[in-house]
Amino acid sequence: MAEIEKDAISGRETTGHEWDGIKELNTPLPRWWLYTFYVSIIWSIGYWIVYPAWPTLSGYTEGVIGYSSRAELTKELEARDESRMVWTDKFSALSVEEISKDSELLNYAMAGGRAIFAENCAPCHGASGSGISSYPVLADDDWLWGGAVGDIYTTISYGIRSTHDDARLGEMPNFGDDMLSGSQISDVAEYVLSLSGGATDNTSAERGTEVFAEECAGCHGENGEGMQSMGAPRLSDGIWIYGKSKQNIMSQIGAPKHGVMPAWVDRLDDVSIKQVSVYVHSLGGGQ
Ligand code: HEC
Ligand code: HEC
Questions:
Q1: What percent of the chain is predicted at pLDDT more than 90?
Q2: 236 vs 128: CA distance, rounded Å
Q3: Percent of the chain with pLDDT over 70
Q4: Phi, psi of 241 (to 5 degrees)
Q5: b/e per residue, 47-81, with b = 16+ CB within 10 A?
Q6: pLDDT at 267
Q7: pLDDT tens digits for range 88-126
Q8: Above 60 in pLDDT, residue 240?
């Protein structure tokens, strides 16, 4: 062992190592550093004892308090399911009318309904029910089949002209099949346009009045106000599913289109249908 020797210039101890006349000074670790180091060793031993730490051949050391992040997660999930159950039970037991009158349930339905709508309905009805050409807008107060929350619930559950037995049904006859002549179709289209102030030929519209009263009023109402039991749209409001031009209206009379909306009873559970009904009802024009 080399004798401890002081460096002549700095006056500090050297380690006794020497290379080609260069000696290494002995610079001990600072005390605060050493103590922190010892404390962290003691801390880690404590940690190994208390918490799961070391892998073993068949698993791991579990620690005396038996903590497991998975158990923690399971506990959180159970708590969440339990709070959700409370909601689900209420939603199953109550009608959509009752749900939309209870502000707490309404909030919950809105949050869930918005997500369900975005996923299932937006492809046909547009984001937030803003409508796409040939599909009705849901965010207005013009309803084909009724805008009360109960009507909406029925529509969503069973669909419109869907394959479900309880679907809403209503067909517009094809007036192009020898029922009306070309000029009658043109006249009645002008009359329909006049109901929302869009006619360009008043004499033609005048001639269409009679045809409308005979052929159309039975479904669309005497003044074109619509009839929800038939799903016949209001024609006097300037809101159109199939377009507002005279050409669009003439083709609906001469070769009618019929929208199909799928039934959701077999695809969504009742709680989800109730939530999305309340959401649609709130979009703007709920009655
Ligand atoms: C495949 C396209 C399609 C999908 C998906 C769809 N719908 Fe529809 N929906 C329609 C069509 C088409 C109509 C209009 C039918 C008609 O002309 O009577 C309609 C009508 C409606 C109506 C009646 C509107 C009124 O004025 O009375 C409601 C309410 C409605 N849909 C809600 C929904 C909800 C909620 C969803 C999602 C769970 C949904 N729809 C998904 C096509 C769709
Ligand atoms: C048996 C009932 C019935 C009769 C009669 C009927 N319609 Fe319709 N009409 C409907 C239904 C139902 C729709 C909705 C189709 C849909 O939702 O897809 C409709 C839709 C329309 C539309 C499209 C509205 C829009 O928003 O785009 C026009 C226009 C129209 N009818 C005009 C007429 C005219 C004009 C007559 C008479 C010549 C007539 N209808 C007779 C049931 C009827």
A1: 68
A2: 25
A3: 98
A4: -80, -45
A5: eeeeebeeeeeeeeeebeeeeeeeeeeeeeeeeee
A6: 95
A7: 899 999 999 999 999 999 999 999 999 999 999 999 999
A8: yes
Closest CA to 259 of 120, 164, 161: 161
CB 205 within 8 A of CB 190: yes
pLDDT top residue among 39 and 18: 39
Two tokens, residue 35? 């103590």
Q: Is it the case that residue 128 has pLDDT exceeding 90?
A: no
- Hey, which of 124, 145, 163 would you mutate to test ligand 1's pocket, going by the most ligand atoms within 8 Å of its Cβ? 124
| Smallest CA separation from ligand 2 atom 7, residue | 172
**How many residues comprise the chain?**
287
Residue with tokens 């289209």: 189
Q: What is the dihedral of CA 201, 205, 206, 210, to 10 degrees?
A: 160
Q: At which residue do the structure tokens 């190592």 appear?
A: 17
Q: Whose CA is nearest to atom 40 of ligand 2?
A: 216
- Structural tokens at position 144: 């084909």
Q: Are 157 and 264 in contact (CB under 8 A)?
A: yes
